[in-house]
Write a structure and sequence with these properties.
alpha/beta; 250 residues; Rossmann fold; 2 domains
Length: 250
């Protein structure tokens, strides 16, 4: 009887949840998942899911050793750059296979009006003169970057901002994707939105706002992804499962 391989999936995305569920169906694999804990009611694929940070690279290295992890898969959000670098370093330190599951970034198509920017600060800098009513879809962590602007914002996020957060003028909308095209069309029209600020998260769950903006000829200030570490990468769940099956069979 072969020994079980212990697989840790760093999650926080729909792809991570799907991967965890399908990995659990592989024989001779014991799966653990981990979430950063940034949302108050995260989607937890298993009761055994660990929630919270590791305490940097050293904390993650200790966890991998203590839990006897054989394989590490990083399926975190494309903008969770710090944990991705920590995971790459920690996996190398303990000498275990490491994979990054990174969904492809969105790319503009005919009819899109995108202003590509490197970060939220640059996004805030280009908004004056672009629109007076902006749909801000960057989550709650960097709202204060836009608080100084004399612009009205519709701010959509899963959880409300922390009490001491500087919040821009406007309205908070607490909701979790996926969002339908009909919903996004209605929001843009109802709130008379003149521009959108979005992270280039990729995937299908929040892409409808990009289609709606294209239809209504609304510019999108698109925040580009931060750098990611070098290492093995795949773009979809099926490719990650193929890679994993190969690793656990050895």
């Amino acid at each position: 009887m072969s020994q079980q391989k212990r697989v840790l999936i760093l999650g926080g995305t729909g792809d991570a949840t799907e991967l965890a569920v399908k990995t659990a169906e592989i024989s001779d694999v014991a799966i653990m998942t981990s979430l950063a804990g940034r949302t108050r009611q995260p989607i937890v694929p298993f009761k055994e899911t660990r929630i919270g940070g590791f305490g940097g690279v050293s904390g993650l290295v200790n966890y991998l050793k203590e839990q006897l992890i054989d394989v590490l898969i990083d399926a975190t959000h494309p903008f969770a750059a710090q944990i991705s670098f920590n995971a790459a370093i920690a996996a190398t330190a303990v000498n275990i296979p490491h994979l990054m599951l990174i969904r492809p970034a969105w790319k503009p198509v005919a009819g899109d009006v995108w202003l590509d920017v490197d970060n939220n600060a640059t996004a805030a800098a280009v908004l004056p003169g672009l629109a007076q009513r902006v749909f801000l879809t960057i989550g709650r962590q960097e709202l204060s970057t836009f608080a100084h602007l004399n612009i009205w914002f519709l701010m959509r996020m899963i959880d409300p901002p922390l009490p001491d957060t500087l919040v821009p003028p406007g309205e908070l909308l607490l909701d979790r994707g996926p969002f339908s095209l009909e919903n996004e069309r209605s929001l843009l029209q109802q709130y008379e939105i003149g521009a959108i600020v979005s992270k280039n998260s990729g995937g299908h769950a929040t892409y409808a706002k990009i289609i709606a903006a294209r239809e209504q000829k609304i510019p999108v200030v698109m925040v580009q992804r931060p750098p990611i570490p070098t290492g093995e990468k795949v773009a979809d769940v099926e490719s990650a499962l193929f890679w994993l099956r190969d690793k656990v069979s050895k």
